[in-house]
Write a structure and sequence with these properties.
Elements lengths: L1 H4 L3 H28 L4 H4 L13 H10 L17 H29 L4 H22 L17 H20 L6 H18 L5
Length: 205
Amino acid sequence: MLLNLIHNPQQLVAYITALLAAITVHEHAHAWMANRLGDPTAKDMGRLSFNPMAHLDLMGTIFLLLVGFGWGKPVPINPNRLKNPIIDNIKISLAGPFSNLIFAIIVGLFIKFIPISQNTFDFFVIIITLNLVLMVFNLLPIPPLDGSHVMELFLPKETYETYERFGMMFLILILVFSNYFPIIDIIINFTINLFFNTLFGIGMR
């Protein structure tokens, strides 16, 4: 994805700015929810912040720039500070993706009802798209993605811990072979098209 923008500095700057905004909103939501549920660990480490540098994960950012999927730096959680560790951890995990959805809806409603220039419209479309990509990708039930924590409700503890250990390997294999089995891309494209069709009556990808 980054390679497609490298020869267009304006679009590259817009893409990186939108990327930083999406990741920051996502990770801030994790930290906010953890603090709200009684665990200030992330807050104490400076993660309850809208500073993008507090949330960037090197590998996750590289993946997002190059292939369109990615993640931010994991927010530290201390389960001993949570009243209901499994349920609260799921709430904390899902706060990130759903914050991206809320962000996308707010921006979408803004450009639907407020007259703006074409360049501004295009920039906001990038913001919406990246937030939807982050939302869908991170909802996949594969460790270390946010959606994987839902599996704690259905798997025995030992099985889930084994699943966590091999999750990254499984995720990398899915991404490596995504050209042959583009399941993630299909889900993301469907979500983006559904969003823009609902809001504007048009498909985007």
